[in-house]
# Entry
Amino acid sequence: MPVTLSLMDIQTARQRIAPGIRRTPLTSTSTLSGKLKTNVYAKLEMFQKTGSFKVRGALNKALNLKPEERGRGIVAVSGGNHAQAVAYVARTLGLRCLVLMPENTPKNYVDATRGYGAEIKFCASAAAAFAEVAKYELEGWAYIHPFDDPLVIAGQGSVGLEILEDLPQVTDVVVSIGGGGRAGGIATAIKSLKPAVRIWGVETEGADCMSKSLAAGQIVTLEAITSVARTLGAPAPSARTFDMAKRLLECVTVVPDSEAMASLRFILERLKVLCEPAASCTLAAAERLRDRFTSDHYVVLVLCGGNLSVEDLARL
# Structure
């Protein structure tokens, strides 16, 4: 599938969604800079509306729907942050929302999604939910895909524009990968304006569909998601995001859950922010990549979300 995303698409998306999102902070951290022996900054997307970056893409897609396309409302597939984002966007625009969720979705995600007014239908797995969504499209629902949509990716790419404006000297960006839309959008935005910036992808073991696909040279579908980083739980990348990863990322570093959780604890204790394993894994990966950074580099860790329940935090 050809990639149709351009810098102008991302710039337009940013202008379109600006009234409905927060511009999240990019903060320097002397603690992480000392730890990695370089200049480290954290992009705090856990302070975004609904607690993650996802609202950027969902809002851009929804605002592009024509009145006749909105039909019965919006339908989405998610067991995590996308569900909350789509529910929030639907409520903001006065639309009905249905979310197809895997049965093992954590209670805090279920409660938050319902709190934004969405209806929920549980499915046996994420794969089953994706398989079922076509039926709802035929019934007149507008589908907002979690990552395989140029409008969604363009919205996520607005993160990259903010990073460049706040840190023009940026040299490296470390970003986690679920389905690959966020990484692809951020990479497109940044490398279109500053091609020398290196974009480093990150996955956790058990949620590593992109790294397995890149190694195989073709899309690989995971039989199950076993990582604690549930919000990285895409079964497979799409043709579009797979192509973007091949072209735009330096590599994809895979870290074990134990390192992601150790980094989560470190970030909580030292930076005083609670993020998800899907976000803290960027620090774990940066530690593995530390030989690629010098004192002249400016490294941004994209902390993509913070929707981790207190119960899960204590258990993990």
Summary: The mean pLDDT is 95. The chain is about 45% helix and 15% strand.
